[in-house]
Amino acid sequence: MLRFIALRLVKAAVILIAIVTLNFFLIHAAPGDPAAVMAGEAGAADEIFLQQLKEQFGLDKPLLTQLGIYLAGVVQLDLGFSYRQQMPVAELIWDRLPATLLLTTAAFVISLVLGTLAGVLASARVGKWSDTLISTVALLFYATPLYWAALMAVLLFSVQLNWLPGFGYETVGGNYTGFARVLDIAQHLILPASTLGLFFMAVYMRMTRASMLEVSTLDFVKTARAKGLKPGLIQRRHIFRNAMLPVVTLAGLQAGQLVGGAVLTETVFAWPGIGRLMFDALAQRDYNVLLGVFFVSAAMVLLFNLVTDILYRVVDPRIRAS
Amino acid sequence: MRDFWSRFKRNRGAVAGLAILVIVVAVAALAPVLFPQSPWKMVQRPFLPPLTMDALPLGTDALGRNVLSGLAYGAQVSLLIGLVSTVVSLLIGIPIGALAGYFGGWVDDGLMRFTEFFQTVPNFALAIVLVAIFEPSVQSIIGAIAIVSWPPVARLVRGEVLSLRSREYVEAAILSGQKNSTIILRQILPNTLSPIIVLASLMVATAILLESSLSFLGLGDPNLMSWGYMIGAARTVIRQAWWLSFFPGFAILMTVLALNLIGEGLNDALNPRLSRKGK
Questions:
Q1: I want to staple A150 with a disulfide (CB 3.0 to 4.6 A). Which of A15, A242, A268, B157 is the partner?
Q2: Cβ-Cβ contacts under 8 Å, A285 against chain B
Q3: How large is the ipTM?
């Protein structure tokens, strides 16, 4: 197990270095000389300042040396400086990360729980109207643009019905503390988290349904039926447990991808996370922030993958043995 | 061919999807005829609600532009970018997958690590970064979508080639002294066509979603009216003018749904042995 984890860590580290290298070359591909871009962002483009910047960031050195400097910086969690916001990028991201983690975790839980539940329900009633309904909803969710679902949810649940807040992280000027604050944030969380989870909910529904149906044709299930076990018990203990294996793999792969979707959700709901930070950086062409957020979301994907790989070995004894 | 069609039309969803797609394609093709004026042109007062004027059934946007005309021209952009970026993804993914599957060994190892890298990187975030850095244009958007979309193609083709490679007819071709390139292009790839077609139809749907998301964030080609751009521009006025974001989003939903349904129908028709359970 330890050897396995060590191997996976090395692999993750290699991918991270590759991403940093990609980032480095993307900065160089950005229009204009990086120093000029930075100087422009700082609002001063005279020769002396340019030269200063070049020396400070080693831009007068050969490309490979620059890459080395850049890599060393990232290792020390230095993701560059945002001249627009007059703050180090790492600090900007660090401030916003908790909001994004809260949003993506909530979306992940909502989509996984509701998606698998609906999938199980549909598989238990194949061909009946409830199966048709669930499968149709899954098809629709699967084709809905995330940001559009978010806008429509705002329109329906906060503008028309006035049930839930459709803007921000907590009530501005509410000054809630303790439990009241938690409740306030939770209310603000419902719409963004459910719309962000919509697509994956559809994926889990379809996958769970298909997987349940596939497992239910296997021999050990027939044996269980022949033994006279109650259908509900077979459904829960025999079929569900085995059907969940592919779903776990998928969940690990996609948990990290939620961060990408967060850019859209956070933009619509003015959620103060790194997605919103990325959107603002886009409008200002703040490349350092853009690449910083990209790097952090990639790191999160790697982390999620690592966790699922380990979980998978814990859950499935067959993999542990081999 | 007739066999294929009879299997395809047994799937009612797929037929419905095909009908929707035909409508979307027709609207896209006829856009310049139906709406000779540029979709960017101001035609009436801003924020005209739908169904208030016969000539403007879907009303006007914040700058008094015809929403229906925008939708028609947006269909062109969605279909064009969806189709071309999928073709580019296939052009990247098929050779990589074929080489990896055919040669195996270190070629396979290297190419698959490369593929894995692009599969791990968060798709949408990479697409955003690429389009932002290379400046939004049709080319950069197509390129970015293709770069984040090819890995599944490579993996699929690799798997197919791997299993075909050990077939007797391929071994016979090797023994008869055919060149590797001939074997791959003439003997193996034609047999991987069905799953590639199914995957490609689903990829067009994903590409349309991706393009619209990029345009929504302001990363669309500034010269083209696209559905995502329309919704992005309407985002801040959603409380006053619901129709500005509703209709383009509905158009995206229907188009993507149609393509997904067609993909499932193609899967049933082209791979009858693998057709889905529980039907």
A1: A268
A2: 132
A3: 0.88
Res. B276 pLDDT band, cuts 50 70 90? very low
Say whether B122 and A264 touch across the interface (CB within 8 A).
no
Query: Phi and psi at residue A232, in whole multiples of 5°?
Result: -60, -40
Q: What percent of chain B has pLDDT over 90?
A: 48
Spell out which residues of chain B touch residue A259, defining contact as CB-CB under 8 Å.
122, 125
Do the chains contact at B249 and A151, CB–CB below 8 Å? yes
Helix (H) or strand (E) holding A143: helix A129-143
User: What one-character DSSP code corresponds to residue A86?
Assistant: T
Token pair for residue A177?
């503390």
**Which residues from chain A sit within 8 angstroms of residue B248, using beta carbons?**
148
Going B95 to B97 to B98 to B104, the CA torsion angle's sign is positive
Q: Which two tokens stand for residue B172?
A: 């016979």
Please name which of B12, B5, B16 lies closest in space to residue B257, comparing C-alpha atoms: B16
Quick check: B257 and A140 CB within 8 A? yes
**Are the beta carbons of B278 and A209 closer than 8 angstroms?**
yes
% chain B with pLDDT above 70: 97
Q: What is the band of A233 on the pLDDT scale with cuts at 50, 70, 90?
A: confident
Alpha carbon distance A79, B278 (integer Å): 51
Range of the domain at B271: 2-278
Backbone angles phi, psi at B224, to 5 degrees: -115, 135
In this predicted structure, what is the pLDDT of residue B275? 47
- Let me know how long chain B is: 279
Beta bridge partners of A81: A88
Which residues between 28 and 57 in chain A have a beta carbon less than 8 angstroms from any beta carbon of chain B? 29-31
Residue among A210, A214, A298 minimizing CB distance to B122:
A298
Q: Do A127 and B209 touch (CB under 8 A)?
A: no
| Nearest chain A alpha carbon to B125 | A260
Fold for A101-284, please state it.
Answer: MetI-like fold (1.10.3720)
Burial of B175 (0-12, 13-18, 19+ CB in 10 A): exposed
How confident is the model at residue A45, as a pLDDT?
A: 62
CA distance A184 to A81: 34
What are the backbone dihedrals phi and psi of residue A177, each rounded to the nearest 5 degrees, phi first? Answer: -130, 165
The answer to whether residue A159 neighbours chain B at the CB level (below 8 Å) is yes
Smallest Cβ distance to A214: which of B209, B242, B277?
B277
> Per-residue pLDDT tens for A145-180?
999 999 999 989 888 888 888 788 877 777 778 888
DSSP state of B80: H
Q: Residue A39 pLDDT > 80, yes or no?
A: no
**Å from A257 to nearest chain B CA?**
5
Number of domains in chain B: 1
